[in-house]
Amino acid sequence: MTRALLDSPARRRRRRIGTLLLTPVGVAVATLAALVVGAAVQEPAAPDAAATDPGAAAIADPVGVRIASLRAQLGTTPDNADAWAELGALYVQEAENAVNPAYYPKADAALTRSLALRPGGDAVGLGGLAALRVAQHRFVESHDLAQRALAIDATNATLYGTLADADIQLGLYDDAHNAVRQMLDRRPDVRSLARAAYVDELTGEVDKARAMLTQALGVASTPSDVAFCHDGLAELAFSGGEPAEALRQIQLGTAADADAPDLLEGQAKAEAALGQVEAAAADYQRLVQGVPLPKYLREAGEYFESIGLTADAHQADELFATQNTLFTANGVQLDTDPTLFYANQGDPVQALRYAEAGLRARPSAEMQDAYAWALFANGRDVESLAWAEKAASTGMRNALFSFHQGMIENSLGRRAAARADLTL
Q1: What pTM, to 2 d.p., does this model score?
Q2: Which tens digit of pLDDT belongs to each residue from 189-232?
Q3: C-alpha dist (Å) from residue 127 to 22, 35, 124, 320
Q4: Which residues, other chains included, contact 64 with Cβ-Cβ below 8 Å and sequence gap of 6+?
Q5: For the chain, which domains are there?
Q6: Quick check: 133 and 93 in contact, CB under 8 A?
Q7: pLDDT value at position 44?
């Protein structure tokens, strides 16, 4: 089985959760979108249609239209802290929508301005900055900011969600459980149920995770929420060695929301696992052309190489390096993806550099697994096995973890253990 077919549910789940106001864009976007903000920074040029038909523009790009409105508002009322807070949250949303991390510094400036206007503290502004720090993989800062926000407003369910997101990436799974429980008590909706499912999955409680996602599906009221829930169920199925069931769940999700990129990624991966090579390759092409996130580019490049599409693999790899540079330049501390990318590309020194920095910033199971793989690429097999075992110790079923551990065990002559881990 190739590495391209084996992906960490955690990585994708973080983005799914971000789409539903969890991590990357998180929490702040929903909560802060009701507030206000505008930044004195130059925006990308608006489409011509927006100038001639504002109504059509608002439908096509509601976030962009709202950003423009807030900027105009702040031009006349620059001391409106609520408006700055909303603008910051919307910049985070736009960064994900456009796959353009250049919006993150703008979000930072807007949220910082909002907080400066309220030196006594503001839960919404602090919560927005906490969500931004999650998107930038600055999880210690996010944890501290969420705690400060909760000290001001302990009733805000969204803030508990951001805190849980940070705790998960810091490897504080008991704390994440507690934060999710607080969120569920205050708002038992799709977002909180999905977080609870992910924490259960991380700690090996697969049946509980599936039940939580099924419950979330029962209360989902929008096409995107329905698709999100099916994507989560597909991930659980794939991690359990059931690609056909994963594909079925993906198809149910696509029927609700055909444009969700995470569904397309899940579909490509399931097709690849089922030996549907042409379909998988076509879907990976569609994915990276439409949403060139580093994770998608890394995964697609590995799959293209595994099936002999050398030119496509090279193109995906080059774009990965470009996007990695772009994200880093805009304050995003990428970790697992460049670690795995460089380890698999034959650059063990670079892989280990990313792995060591990532482990310091984000000591989660996912980062521990990536660190193990970087150590393995550097010929440090005994150390790498210890870290692979540590990553697996949460009980999470993860195909990529199993693949890495199996390959390491095989290199150490532990054939029976390797066979068990590599047989999914």
Answers
A1: 0.83
A2: 999 999 999 999 999 999 999 999 999 999 999 999 999 999 99
A3: 12, 12, 5, 31
A4: 43, 46, 50, 57, 94
A5: 21-153 (1.25.40)
A6: no
A7: 39
